[in-house]
Amino acid sequence: RRREVSLRSDILAALRSAGPAGASGEAIARESGVSRVAIAKHIAALREIGYVIDAHPGEGYVLTSAPDLVIPAEVAPLLRDSLWVRVEGDVTVGSTNDEARSLAVAGAAEGTVVVASVQTAGRGRLGRQWESPAGGAYLSAVLRPPVAAIELAPLPLVIALGVARGLESLGCAPRLKWPNDVELTSGKVAGILLELSAQADRVEWVVAGIGINVASQVDQPSAGRIADEVADVSASQAAASVLDGVAAAYIEWLDGGFGALAAEYAARHRLEGEEVTVRDLEGRKVVAGSVRGVDSFGRLLVESDGRTVAVPSGDVTLRA
Ligand code: BT5
Asked: Measured by CB atoms within 10 angstroms of the end CB, which terminus of the chain is less buried, N or C?
């Protein structure tokens, strides 16, 4: 399967570098060490998912147009960080988190990623729905942090910061809303869903799911998208940039704890000084007051009646 992904990305690279001159099936076959029949089979599969590949007798294959797909063959060659060891996925997937979870349970290594262009059953937290139309990037990464479950508390913030770094490398100016919302001026541009399995003293796996609105039209009043801020960002490039941002933030957190990232998180935190109400995930009010930052454990500091409360998790709303 991994061989298939790299073969398909080799074929796309050969077609792209040949341009209008075209690349012969024979030359591609020779270079990638497979048969011409295998190349023809992959060309047919690429056509099926929207690549327009002309075949000119005597000259070979010419790629005349390519869809902007978030598939392994497009994303894998763009990834820079060595954390990413394996890329799975397809044009359309139910939920990349479900796929990544199955891979994790089956023993997939840290750094395995599942990518998709469309999800038919994209999930948010607490059984909420994540709208996942074409034009977005849907990603789930298998992580195996060598820590106890209790140490995972700041991980949502670490992932959010990594997503923000990736978006910055694309030219966006993201803001963070504790704990793990990533916003642009137009609204929420990315959602993060962490799922995990742990023993008391040891985390077995974490699946970090990330949905990014690249150029997608989402039917949500509070949704933003990259295309409103930066022109001509491909969904596959957005996927790779975000994954590389996440890898770097994750490694820095493993090495230095959230303390090493706290200042960078704070600099992008848009709740600083705001009057907020924090509720737990069942909707019960935890505290209301003004935000005084995020501590080195990733807890939100809220000043209320002259004392400061450190909140480990919850949902924040701004008070009018
Ligand atoms: C999240 O949930 O923000 C986490 C979303 C994680 C999605 C990724 S995609 C890859 C991976 N595979 C999955 O199946 N999931 C992950 P939450 O904080 O509960 O926010 C969900 C709420 O955001 C919904 O109830 C809507 O109000 C809103 N929403 C839904 N789709 C949206 C979108 N595309 N953009 C912005 N907001 C959206």
From this structure: C
